[in-house]
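Late entry, written up from scratch paper. The run itself happened at the end of the previous shift, but nothing got recorded in the book at the time, so transcribing now.
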Amino acid sequence: MRKGRDGGVAAAAVQTNTAIRQKSVWERMKKCWQLYVFLIPALLSLIIFSYAPMYGIILAFKDYNPLDGIWGSEWVGLEHFIRFFNSPYFVQLLKNTLIISIYGLIVGFPIPILLALGLNYVRNLKFKKTVQTVTYAPYFISTVVLVGILNIVFSDKGFINQFITMTGHESILFMGIEKYWRHIYVWSGVWQSMGWSAIIYIAALAGVSPELHEAAIIDGASKLQRIRYIDLPAIMPTIVITLILNSGAIMSVGFEKAFLMQNPLNTGVSEIISTYIYKVGLISSEYGYSTAVGLFNSVVNCILLLTVNQVAKKMGQSSIW
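Output as recorded:
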């Protein structure tokens, strides 16, 4: 009898699922309309700030004149792109952008992972929360304030130069010497974002079953072995997805920080594509040319994103799609 009742319940469940699947999309949306209302602000934001501006891409192929408008301006085809590729600044801009991005990726990507793994083994909860707060608090410092702090710290009268002069050496103009600029830019970014970036890995580590660690401890595994064989495989999908997204933004070095840290003494390494777009686009009013440079930058990022995603998929790792 019991087996018959179980079979009847299972059959009823199958029929219910079939009926739900057969419902139209509109009926399901009507039933859960509250959830779709929550999506409206995000959808509007995406349309207004991401899709609507794509209309302006056509400027990259026109000699834009504000009086004639976008459609009335003269069509020049690939002239702006050819001008940029033949520009004496092209190699320097590309080099500076790639060096800063790759340097930042190599240094900044593993540090949040190491921080998360280290905090995962801290048993003193108060100390753990304190370290988390101290490390992710800098993320909320605005770029302007951060650059102001850097200018004070590395100025001629900053405490670093005061320490240098106390040791009998001459002060160093850190923000004006090219060989120091990239290091200051990258490591200040690591300091600002490592705690915030570690949160996603801490959350992934929280999902690891404690039973796996208990079994490993019973078998005599050390902490390094537990990290290697339990923790890293558990967060590997998160690591791969984050790496793919970061690789797709290699050419998108932050404009604000680079521009604010820039001065006539360090432009040889601080002039990147985003600052160049600002100068030729808004300051020099060459809207078509700056749009072409920005479009080139976006296309390269898209190609890198697709390539890294495909490589990750071929290697059997997680991928975005």
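Strands lie at 62-65, 73-75.
(Scratch paper discarded after transcription.)
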